[in-house]
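User: quick one, fold this
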Amino acid sequence: MADSLLPILLFAACALALALGMLGVASLFGPKRQTAVKQMAYESGMDPIHDAHRKFDVRFHLVAIAFLLFDVELLFLYPWAVAGNATAGIDAAVAQATELGIGYSRGLVFIEVMVFVGLLAVGLVYAWKKGVFKWR
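Assistant:
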């Protein structure tokens, strides 16, 4: 048991030593002048001069939602792109479902993926209508 934990403990010790070493080097060679501008709080790319309850422009939230939409799309569709074609992705999904004892067919997996892509298309149309992609 101890022999199997030794590589993990050695890795953790090396990672800790490296992190502490980097912090030590940064504090030794880093800038030490503190100015009023450096001490000022910085939030969301705006100087905190006004009231904290000031409303953001709705475009900020729409851009954030569009980013999440396409980020999730990339996360789920990337394995299909790596597989080279959609049928390889379907075969992998069916094989995984078969291993779990779930009765999936190729057609059902394909329909699920098309529903997912359709929902993403609805999100794209919504963002387009709201003007998220217009440069202002």
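User: anything notable?
Assistant: The radius of gyration is 25 Å.
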